Amino acid sequence: MDYPSNVSFVIDRLEALGHEAFIVGGSVRDSVMGRIPNDYDVTTSALPEQILSSFSDMRTIPTGLKHGTVTVISGGEPIEVTTYRIDGDYLDSRHPSSVIFTDSITADLSRRDFTVNAMAYSKKRGLVDPFGGEADIARRLIRAVGEPKRRFSEDALRILRAFRFASQLDFSIDGETLLGARDEACGLSRIAAERKAVELLKLITAKNPSYALFEMKRLEIFPYIFGEYQPSDRVISALDRAELSARAALSLLLFECEESARGEILRSLKLPTKLFSGCETICRRLSQGLPSGESGARRLIGSCGELIQDLLSAARALSVLDPALESAVIENLRKGSCTTAAELSVRGYDIVKLGISGKAVGETIAYLLEAVIEDPSLNKKETLLSLAAERNGIKG
Ligand code: ATP
Ligand code: MG
């Protein structure tokens, strides 16, 4: 197992000053699995002040000093260096009421969520794996560190993290861990919606999310995320058929939900505005059913705008995308066909110049757009002006 030289630099410096230091968590898990880690977190016996003084010649950011985390900029990249710690009592099922520093790597690993995430490694000291994380990786298993029920009651977000990791890593979840998740699911009602949404989006954008979603359905986890709504088996299976963007995947998961309940769910997840409104539009289009024919394709492009690719991928995963519609959409996008009023060869003031005013201007534009969507060859200024005149009874 290896890690990059800028990470080595941090670990070697701490060790040279008499501390222990390891890479930890996701980076060890990914390395054991032969994957390239997203980032490397370092855990150390050095106290926060000692971490700061060890790197006083380098840029450091006291990211979460109270929790023992200092970010060290090494080789131009931020590395989070955290003092070994155990969490104090959990009061509100999410925030440990106190953080206690420790000098034991095993104690630090024991507060972590799953065995596969509770390993540390350094070139000097080798792999520290007190809970059998390596064996669980070989068995492709997500298993809580310690007693699952207690770990989930300390922090219910771990329940969603279990399903999220199962989905991302394509692992199954240990039986006891699943039972613990079921028994402690009610703790999810106290978890902030944004945090639940982050885990859910990571889960559904993975390659094969159906195992995790079917288990969540069986164990009645969805009421704590979606209220009354349960995604159907059809929708869950469809998510395995394509790797989708967050917007496409969430739309797929929710389009069968009744419109006002869906709005309520999307609002409750406190999503970024763009994701929220994009999902609403795609869901509406999917639940209405897709149009057919050339003009239908143009109408779809006009009403979806930049959402069109996500709509197509969600529809394809659901097996409701007619190949003829798909090629018509692609061809019209390629040609840059006119699908919105802004792309017409006349503007509102051209219509006004004909002597048309008030509400009739907007109505005329809508009429012209409809004509051009039916027949793109009409999108020429002269043609549209005469159509507009004709519609409004103006003699040329
Ligand atoms: P990713 O590749 O998605 O970032 P990760 O394993 O690095 O996966 P993080 O959420 O970044 O996950 O957390 C880093 C590590 O911190 C985890 O591997 C785990 O050891 C620990 N951890 C994070 N959240 C929790 C939690 N809620 N309870 C216990 N341990 C946690
Ligand atoms: Mg991480």
Write the layout of secondary structure elements.
Layout: H1 5-16, E1 21-24, H2 26-32, E2 41-44, H3 48-54, E3 60-64, E4 69-74, E5 77-83, E6 85-87, E7 99-101, H4 105-110, E8 120-122, E9 126-128, H5 133-139, E10 141-142, H6 148-154, H7 157-169, E11 172-173, H8 175-184, H9 193-204, H10 210-218, H11 223-226, H12 233-238, H13 246-254, H14 259-268, H15 273-288, H16 293-304, H17 308-317, H18 323-335, H19 348-353, H20 359-374, H21 381-391
Parallel strand pairs: 2-5, 10-11
Antiparallel strand pairs: 1-2, 1-8, 3-4, 4-5, 6-7, 8-9
Helix pairs in contact: 6-8, 7-9, 7-10, 13-15, 13-17, 14-15, 16-18, 20-21
Structure described in brief:
By secondary structure, the chain is α+β, with helices and mostly antiparallel strands. The N and C termini lie far apart (81 Å). 51% of the residues lie in helices and 11% in strands.
Our count of helices gives 21
What share of residues is helical? 40-55%
Bound molecules: adenosine-5'-triphosphate, magnesium ion
Shape category: elongated
CA(first)-CA(last) distance: 81 Å
The secondary structure category is alpha+beta
Describe the structure.
- The chain is of the alpha+beta class and 396 residues long.
- Helices cover 51% and strands 11% of the residues.
- The chain contains 21 helices and 11 strands.
- It has helices at 5-16, 26-32, 48-54, 105-110, 133-139, 148-154, 157-169, 175-184, 193-204, 210-218, 223-226, 233-238, 246-254, 259-268, 273-288, 293-304, 308-317, 323-335, 348-353, 359-374, 381-391; strands at 21-24, 41-44, 60-64, 69-74, 77-83, 85-87, 99-101, 120-122, 126-128, 141-142, 172-173.
- It starts with a helix and ends in a 5-residue tail after the last helix.
- The model has no long low-confidence stretch (mean pLDDT 94).
- The structure holds adenosine-5'-triphosphate and magnesium ion.
- Residues 26, 39 line the site of magnesium ion.
